[in-house]
Structures are given as structure tokens and as C-alpha cells.
From TrEMBL:
Gene Ontology, cellular component aspect: GPI-anchor transamidase complex
Keyword Oxidoreductase (UniProt): no
Pfam families named in the record: Gpi16
Signal peptide range: 1-19
Protein name per UniProt: Phosphatidylinositol glycan, class T
Origin superkingdom: Eukaryota
Record's keyword annotation contains NADP: no
Single GO biological process annotation from the record: attachment of GPI anchor to protein
């Protein structure tokens, strides 16, 4: 399977040349969203979407003709019977400094790298999954394959349900919490776009020196493959970052006359608005305003304003059509009318529901996971809390406790699914807690655990600093789509964010003194060398008398 996927990657330029001769009905759209945050920062989200169709469904002869969709991305998925796939890299996000429970793109993972997808059932599904992760890992210059035996998780299909139902499929999940974003991940991402970062919104993104100076970044793709019931496929890509918005002097300009204090596209990206990508059906710039804090936020030139439900809040959104020739080479300025200095808020309005996870260590080998789920709404919420542990973390399920205001509340645990690792076969341990979260409450879940001792050979060849655990997931069960018409729900439940992630967790493990084996090797080698030298000298050296003449002795004495 790996050789097959590599063959497709090598032949991708040939397929691209063929695609030019065979026109398809692919459509491409792009958008750039700016969202000022309450702590003086700004979230910037690039999004790209391509709708494509598969020629295999229209012809009895197997073909792979693509125009706006890169063959290097789709061909490994077609060859390995993948129906859906999502890849995400996230680093640097801190939910405590924002009024949102996560990044603007709802598919972003909690931290590190993550690849998940649905494969059609077959006898060699696991081999096909490994082929896909290896092929796309090479494409993105990132290690997406399993590092240890048993890293693959196959019971998270309920947490990541199919967006397009396909029968007889299995869900696969691989998490890499130690992964970090770098320029080597950005360059392949841009190469997948039809514009290649040369025109359109992607030209603003193709500046690693600027976007990697931001405080946090997230990159990912989501692919829905065509099928007999859904002839059109879709692949989406995104890049998101958070950058400081307030200058060092803490000043804001309160009018549009003095450009020194304005915020603008050119000041953020060091470029003015680029020419649109010729094949783009839509290219939109969006500015999200949070009322009432940003009621005095102004823009020039003006855009089209409207209200939208975004992440559980009704927000004011300004849009500009970047395909308008009048905006090419121009700039858009933003300023806060009547506000000359930014004051950091004493308190940041928290999101409707949030989750955090820490470890309370009693001993070097034992500890307790303490999960805090805060419901800031006047509504009772239903959710599933999920964990992924390596095999050497052993939880004590009989000692799980739930608290609200220091009072035990076992009645809030509706269901528990526990899938432990089963030695001698190495695998991950997964847990799913179905919970009821009362209104205006702080639910604390405590899970005692023991850290098993790893063998000397099981420690990774890396600097010993502990091992990072994957972000845990809180899946909300009572959300309503944001774009639903006629919905009576007008609160924080009206959101597309179905999953809230915790940060990664660095867990210290019992570690042997790695210097002792080398000390033993050095001492043993020294003793053996001395012993061998003495024995070799005793067995090979010849003993005899040497006669010295008297004349030579007299001459020596003189």
C-alpha cells in the first residue's frame, strides 16, 4: 500500500497535465476572517474550499482527472478507500485569554497533530490506513504515522461522526501531541491550493516570517470523497493564527485621519489587497464584531453589514467582496471611533461552557486527573467527556468521583465507557463519560491513576522531559446548527462547535537513571581491557637473561 501511494505521488505532475486537457466542474472559494479578541489580540482565519467530482463515477474506465484539486492529495485516498479524512496541527492556543472555547475553525484539534478519518471496511483496513498516513505525512513534511504499536484509536467514531453517511466504514484516529507547526508544514499546504500562494487571499498567507511570528497557529485540511450517493467531493483547508493588536504605546487612533494609529490589512500582512485568483467563484474578507465592545469599530471603505450566529452568539459581521476590481491594490483601514487608549479588561467574559485538565500528584508513581467543566449558562447541558491514555497509564475506575461545590454528585454520571489496554498486546486506553452539567455550575471529575514502569528499551530516544498526553475532548450533545432557519434556540447552544478541547498535558513518568548502564559499560570495559592486557602479556611475553659485558658497564659508568 505504501508503494502504491508513493507511485501516485510521483505521477501527480502527469495527472495534473492530463487534467488541463479534460475540463471539470470544480469550484473554488476563499475567505479571510478577522476577529478582534477582548484581550487586545486578533484572530485571523484563512479558509479555502474546493468542490470537485470524481470521473470514476462517470466512466467505466478508471481515470483520475483533476483541475483545481491536487492529485497528490486525492489519489492516495482513492487508492485506499477513504471516505473522509481530517488533518489538523495546532500550537499555542490559550482558551483562558479569550471569550471563545476554541479557535474560529471548529475542526482544529486541541494541541499538536491529529489525523482522523473513515475507511471502507476491508480485510486490510489497517494496512490501508498506514499507507494513507505515510503518504500524507510525506506530503505535509510531518510524521503522521503511528510511532508505537497500538497508537491507533478505533472507538472515537461517535465523537467524530461521519458528515456524509457511508455504510460499512470504520473510524481511525491518530494523535501526535508532541508535533509543532513550522514552515515545512506551510509550504506543502500552499502547494495544494490552486493559486499556489501567488494570487488571491493565499498570497497574504505565503509569508512565513510574518505568520509564524504570531502567538498561536493552526493548520488543517478536511476531505469528503465522492461516492455513489454523493457524486461531489469537497476539500477544505484552513490556517488560523492569533496576533497582537495593540501597539507598544497602548494607543488607538480614534479617527481615520492619522494613519499612524490605524489598523489595516497592509499593517497586518505588509501587503495591500491582492488581485483575485481568476478561478475563484468567491473571495471574501470578513470582520466579526462583538457587541457591545466593538460597536465603535469602524472601517474604510465600508462593507456589507449583517448579523450572524457565530459560536453561540449573535454577532455583527462586515463583508467585502475581494473580486471587486476597485479593491485590488487598495487597503482597508480599521479604527475604534472615540477611543484613544486601549484598557485591558479586568475580567474577560467566559464562554458558555469550558473545560480544563490538570494532574494532582501524590506520589511519583500515582496521581489524579482533575477535570473542571464550567457551565456559565442558565441551561443544563449534556456532554461526553473523552480521554486517550497510553498503555502505561492505568486508571482506577472504582474510585472516580464527581463534585459540585465540594459535594459528591455521582448522579451526574449517566454512562461510562471504559476500553482499557489489554497486555501483552500494547494499545491505548480510552474513556467516555456521559455527563449532565447543571446550569451555573463547576463540575469537577477526579480520576485516580497509576503510572506503570516502562522497560529500559521502551523509552523513546529523546531528551527525558516527560511524555505529552493528547488533549481530552468535551463533546456537546445539545447543540443546534448556526444557520438553522426557524430555530427557537437563541443561546449558546446555537453553535457549530460540537467539541471543546483541553490543552495538552505533560505527564512525568518513573524514569531510571540512564547514566548507570553507561557507567557499568565503562567500568566493565575497563576491567576487561586490563585483564586482557595482563593475560596477553603473560602468555606472549618471553622471559630470559640479558648478559651485560664489563666494558660496556665501565663505559656506561664513565
Amino acid at each position: 500500500m505504501l508503494l502504491s501511494s508513493l507511485r501516485y505521488l510521483l505521477l501527480a505532475p502527469i495527472y495534473t497535465a492530463v487534467a488541463i486537457q479534460h475540463g471539470t466542474d470544480d469550484t473554488f472559494s476563499e475567505s479571510l476572517t478577522l476577529h478582534p479578541l477582548p484581550d487586545g489580540r486578533m484572530s485571523v482565519l484563512f479558509q479555502f474550499e474546493t468542490i470537485f467530482s470524481s470521473s470514476k463515477l462517470q466512466s467505466s474506465t478508471p481515470q483520475s482527472h483533476h483541475s483545481l484539486t491536487p492529485p497528490s492529495l486525492l489519489l492516495p485516498l482513492e487508492a485506499n478507500n477513504v471516505s473522509e479524512l481530517t488533518i489538523s496541527f495546532t500550537s499555542g492556543w490559550d482558551s483562558t485569554r479569550s471569550s471563545s472555547a476554541g479557535l474560529m475553525n471548529y475542526e482544529s484539534s486541541g494541541g499538536g497533530g491529529e489525523i482522523r478519518g473513515w475507511l471502507r471496511d476491508s480485510d486490510n483496513a489497517k494496512e490501508r490506513w498506514n499507507a494513507v498516513t505515510n503518504a500524507l505525512g510525506g506530503l505535509f513534511c510531518a510524521g503522521l504515522g503511528a510511532k508505537d504499536v497500538g497508537d491507533i484509536v478505533r472507538d472515537f467514531g461517535g465523537i467524530y461522526p461521519q458528515k456524509r453517511f457511508v455504510e460499512n466504514t470504520t473510524h481511525f484516529l491518530l494523535s501526535h501531541p508532541e508535533s509543532h507547526l513550522c514552515t515545512e508544514n506551510l509550504t506543502p499546504f500552499l502547494s495544494l491550493l490552486p493559486s499556489k500562494g501567488l494570487s488571491g487571499i493565499s498570497s497574504l498567507l505565503s509569508q512565513p516570517g510574518i505568520i509564524f511570528s504570531w502567538e498561536s497557529q493552526s493548520e488543517g485540511i478536511e476531505i469528503l470523497m465522492p461516492s455513489s450517493t454523493h457524486p461531489e467531493g469537497r476539500w477544505k483547508g484552513w490556517w488560523e493564527g492569533v496576533l497582537p493588536l495593540i501597539p507598544e504605546n497602548n494607543k488607538r487612533n480614534n479617527n481615520n485621519d492619522d494613519e499612524s494609529g490605524n489598523l489595516s490589512i497592509e499593517k497586518i500582512f505588509k501587503k495591500k489587497l491582492p488581485r483575485p485568483f481568476p478561478e475563484a467563484q468567491s473571495s471574501v474578507l470578513r470582520l466579526i464584531k462583538d457587541s457591545p465592545r466593538d460597536d465603535n469599530l469602524r472601517a474604510n471603505p465600508n462593507g456589507r453589514e449583517g448579523n450572524e450566529w457565530i459560536d453561540g452568539q449573535l454577532r455583527n459581521v462586515i463583508e467585502w467582496d475581494l473580486t471587486d476590481a476597485n479593491l485590488v491594490g487598495k487597503d482597508i483601514d480599521f479604527w475604534w471611533d472615540g477611543e484613544t487608549e486601549f484598557h485591558y479588561p479586568r475580567n474577560i467574559l467566559p464562554p458558555g461552557i469550558s473545560v480544563s485538565r490538570t494532574v494532582v500528584d501524590k506520589l511519583a508513581s500515582d496521581g489524579t486527573f482533575q477535570i473542571t467543566i464550567t457551565n456559565n449558562d442558565d441551561l443544563e447541558r449534556k456532554a461526553i467527556y473523552s480521554e486517550i491514555w497510553p498503555w502505561w497509564v492505568k486508571g482506577w475506575m472504582s474510585e472516580i468521583e464527581l463534585f459540585i461545590d465540594n459535594e459528591k454528585r455521582p448522579d451526574l454520571l449517566d454512562n461510562l465507557s471504559y476500553n482499557p489496554s489489554t497486555p501483552p498486546k500494547i494499545s491505548t486506553t480510552t474513556l467516555h463519560f456521559t455527563l449532565t452539567i447543571p446550569a451555573r455550575s463547576k463540575l469537577i471529575l477526579k480520576i485516580p491513576f497509576t503510572k506503570l514502569t516502562l522497560k529500559y528499551t521502551e523509552h523513546r530516544p529523546d531528551a527525558e522531559r516527560g511524555i505529552e498526553l493528547s488533549s481530552s475532548i468535551l463533546t456537546l450533545l445539545d447543540t443546534v446548527p448556526e444557520q438553522s432557519t426557524g430555530s427557537a434556540v437563541e443561546d449558546s447552544r446555537r453553535t457549530g462547535r460540537k467539541r471543546i478541547y483541553t490543552n495538552r498535558l505533560l505527564l512525568d513518568i518513573p524514569t531510571p537513571d540512564f547514566s548507570m548502564p553507561y557507567n557499568v559499560i565503562i567500568m566493565s570495559s575497563t576491567v576487561m581491557a586490563l585483564f586482557f592486557g595482563l593475560m596477553q602479556g603473560a602468555l606472549t611475553r618471553k622471559w630470559g637473561w640479558v648478559e651485560v659485558k664489563d666494558g660496556a658497564e665501565d663505559k656506561k659508568n664513565d
